[in-house]
């Protein structure tokens, strides 16, 4: 089964996807209501951590998929699948906003790792886009040290993101 077949199967049977992505913000609202003022304490911060990972991993995947489809595949925004490309992002944003109302992200275990993962994926996508858009003609008109500076900055961003991811 390919990724495209999996996404088509999910779009053909959207009830589980809709239930999953609507349950996450509702669970965050319930945790906000029940644990008001205690979000930095042990049981609540781990629940927020679980909710954050359950929302952010599909959300980051959807953002990465959208960037890939719109930049590299040149797909129209009108062809975007609501269940696999839009709903995970909306659920992630809603869940994170609800969690942020009750606690700071620094208090939640693992939040820095998600930020590092997002930075690494973003830097790799920028490098891939840059390498796709460059041509021999562009290199002949652009001084070579500009290309080296751009690549060095992107690799520093990747290094910073991986350090943040694994620390």
Alpha carbon gyration radius: 19 Å
**Major sheet, described briefly?**
none
The low-confidence parts are none
What's the overall geometry?
flat
Broad structural category = mainly alpha
Record field, number of beta strands = 0
Q: How far apart lie the N and C ends?
A: 35 Å
Helix tally? 7
The helix/strand order is HHHHHHH
How much strand content do the residues show? under 5%
Mean pLDDT: 83
Estimate the helix proportion, in percent.
over 70%
Please provide a written account of the structure.
- Helices cover 80% and strands 0% of the residues.
- By secondary structure, the chain is an all-alpha fold.
- Helix 3 runs parallel beside helix 5.
- The chain is flat, with a radius of gyration of 19 Å.
Topology overview:
Layout: H1 3-12, H2 15-34, H3 42-72, H4 82-102, H5 111-133, H6 136-141, H7 144-166
Helix pairs in contact: 2-3, 2-4, 3-4, 3-5, 5-7
Structure summary:
The protein has 7 helices and no strands. The chain has helices spanning 3-12, 15-34, 42-72, 82-102, 111-133, 136-141, 144-166.
Q: What labels describe this entry?
A:
flat, 167 residues, mainly alpha
């Amino acid at each position: 089964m390919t990724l495209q077949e999996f996404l088509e199967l999910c779009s053909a049977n959207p009830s589980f996807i809709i239930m999953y992505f609507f349950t996450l913000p509702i669970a965050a609202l319930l945790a906000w209501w029940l644990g008001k003022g205690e979000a930095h304490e042990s049981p609540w911060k781990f629940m927020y951590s679980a909710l954050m990972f359950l929302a952010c991993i599909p959300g980051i995947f959807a953002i990465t998929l959208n960037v890939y489809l719109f930049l590299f595949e040149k797909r129209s925004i009108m062809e975007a699948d609501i269940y696999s490309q839009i709903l995970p992002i909306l659920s992630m944003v809603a869940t994170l906003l609800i969690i942020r109302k009750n606690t700071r992200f620094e208090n939640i275990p693992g939040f820095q790792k998600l930020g590092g993962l997002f930075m690494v994926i973003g830097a790799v996508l920028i490098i891939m886009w840059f390498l796709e858009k460059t041509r021999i003609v562009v290199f002949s008109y652009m001084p070579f040290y500009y290309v080296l500076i751009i690549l060095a900055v992107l690799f520093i961003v990747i290094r910073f993101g991986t350090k943040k991811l694994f620390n």
